[in-house]
Amino acid sequence: MTNRNLKEKILYLRLKQKDKEAFIEAYDLYLDDIYRFIFFKVSNKEEAEDLASSVFLKAWNHIQNNSISDFKTLKALFYKIARNLVIDYYRSNANKKDVSIDGDENCLNIPDERQDLLAKIDNSNDFQNVREKMLDLKEEYREVLILKYVNELSITEIANILDKTKGNVRVLVYRALNALRGNVEEK
Amino acid sequence: MNEKEILNQLNKFQNVKPDDAWKKSNRDILLSQISNSQSKNVEFSWLQNFRMQMQALTNLSQPAMAVVLIMLFIVSGGTFGLRASKDTKPGDSLYIAKIISEKAQLAVAFDQEKKMKLGMQFVGNRADELSQVLASKSSETMSEAEKQEVNELVNNLKQEIKNVARQAEKNQPVAVIEEPVEDEGMVYTAGSGRTENGVQVSENPQAVASSSTPVIETNPNTILQQARELLDQANYDAAISKLEEAGNAVNAESGEVKGVEASSTEEVK
């Protein structure tokens, strides 16, 4: 058992005791990851913010009313709730079409000032390419790639979140990466 | 682009973050929302609290729990095994456990007097075993193998007696200086005489000693010697009763030695 897991456990117990400071801690700890996870699913800043916010509210209520035995870790709980919320979101918005108020310039344009101009352009091209191809990927593949390589979760954690076996997740990650590389090289 | 580059690009997605301003305002909103929901809930009962802690415990330390359980199993198994081996005689499967436990007890007894006592107890055990074996068979119906067994037992008993006798000899000089085991009755009365009457030593110590201790032979060493001789003559029953006598003598002695100590400490004061 790692130190981090232990910390999570303690955080959970504090949440269970209705410790508001623990809630703030959990919020600061997981918000970025959860937000990112949702953002890549809905590709819309405002929706992602709304959904991320409700994830924390739902998690709070869930923790008060249920035991931790339904899921392995606090982190997994947040991700699971986020996933379900996104599914609900798609279900209820099946017929609606959203337009982001940010237009094309959403926060995926990432400046990196440490590199020189040429490298920056090239880099940015590569990045845009990968970004586009990511959006072309199957939802399932995109999800594991985000969890594994962006949010840097372990295979075990991903398996907990997706309710799959570890072997299953490994295969999924491998295939997703292959598919992405195929898409990128296609260009 | 190779896989590494793709992964590098993917890593850059980590820079996707919510606005700090939104983060802050949303935190406040959430906080006020959970504060509202809080008042609805009833207070935590101690039972729930306890259950939750137990749950956390099981979640946290399953391997530790397993280790504790295994240890518990081994220890309890050992204890029950030893208890079960208490009334065994040679040839029983648990007899070896009994012998080993006796050896272990002797090894961890550092006090000479305690060692002596234990030794006597084990001599008693050997004697009990011998009497058990003898009681179950009469000497006429005994087969060669059984006779062999009895012989071995007798030898064991002798060996044990020798050990105890050696122990007693080792014990003696120390005992004479610190707490005179041999003449304990005498010293005891002398001490009490001193406190009561202010007389240094009573006139006829031997007489007082014999009147205070009705057993004529109180020295376990001599009794052991006698028991050994009886064993050599194959007079097992007599030897066993002699041994019991020796055991009683040792027990009684330790009790009286304590008395001496008490009176001598009084004296010092």
What does this protein look like?
- The complex is a heterodimer of chains A (187) and B (269).
- Helices cover 74% and strands 0% of the residues of chain A.
- Residues 110-122 of chain A have low confidence and may be disordered.
- In chain A, α1 crosses α2, α2 packs across α6 and α7 packs across α8 (166-186).
- By secondary structure, chain A is mainly α.
- Chain A has helices spanning 3-16, 20-42, 45-65, 74-92, 117-136, 139-150, 155-162, 166-186.
- Chain A has eight helices and no strands.
- With 269 residues, chain B is mostly helical.
- Chain B has helices at 3-12, 20-40, 46-60, 62-84, 95-108, 112-136, 144-178, 184-197, 205-212, 220-232, 236-268.
- In chain B, α6 runs antiparallel to α7 (144-178) and α8 (184-197) packs across α9 (205-212).
- Chain B starts with a helix and ends with a helix.
- Chains A and B meet through α1, α2, α3, α5 and α6 of A and α1, α2 and α3 of B.
Short description:
The complex is a heterodimer of chains A (187) and B (269). Chain A is mainly α.
Entry keywords:
heterodimer, A: 187 residues, mainly alpha, 8 helices, B: 269 residues, 11 helices, disordered C terminus
